[in-house]
Design a protein that fits this description.
This protein has 193 residues and is α+β, with helices and mostly antiparallel strands. Helix content is 49%, strand content 20%.
Length: 193
């Protein structure tokens, strides 16, 4: 998997950019939230990436922040939502506004984003409710950056349900351990149940 790219910004043609990394040009699709924050052509840039391997293609999606990438990955887990809708969502609404829309169950706000119809909006609202809560165990916003948030994301990657992951992390947390220690302890608690 390609987790990040650092190199020279060679091309900008929304939503696609190209980053030259040691003479190899990587085509990366980015949401407009990232695109508008990119440096000028020829400047160095570092993007966090989500790498998709399909039968007919390998695709890279890039983000300037971990919060954007985490939300993108969470949205991809929603039934019927693919990378195109994930990019459209991040291009059409901020992370904070999306969290607010989900909390208020505002279908109309989501259907204003190109590519998101009523049924997709309803699925997003239902399925993202628990995921947003799980990604912000400390209430620090939709995607927390603390040890507990990182540990919760790891538990989600291990296929724990969002509510269960949040519960296990909360039960395992002492407030002073590293992410790895917290995950280990949460898994031990899960194993004893």
């Amino acid at each position: 998997m390609i987790g990040s790219l650092s190199g020279v910004l060679a091309e900008k043609s929304p939503p696609r950019i190209q980053i030259d990394v040691g003479g190899v040009g990587y085509d990366v699709e980015v949401p407009m939230s990232t695109f508008f924050s990119l440096p000028a052509l020829g400047d160095r840039v570092r993007l966090l990436t989500h790498h998709v391997v399909r039968e007919d293609a390998q695709l890279l999606y890039g983000f300037l922040t971990e919060a954007e990438r985490s939300l993108f990955r969470s949205v991809l887990k929603v039934s019927g939502v693919g990378p195109r809708i994930g990019l459209a969502l991040l291009s059409g609404i901020t992370i904070e506004a999306f969290a607010q829309v989900v909390r208020e169950k505002d279908t109309t706000a989501l259907t204003r984003i190109p590519g998101i119809g009523r049924k997709t909006a309803e699925r997003l609202l239902v399925e993202m409710q628990d995921r947003l809560d799980a990604l912000s165990p400390g209430g620090d916003g939709p995607v927390g950056m603390g040890v507990e948030a990182e540990a919760t994301r790891a538990m989600l990657a291990l296929d724990y349900k969002p509510a269960e992951a949040a519960r296990l992390i909360k039960a395992a947390s002492t407030g002073t351990q590293s992410t790895e220690e917290l995950i280990r302890r949460a898994l031990q608690i899960a194993g004893k149940e």
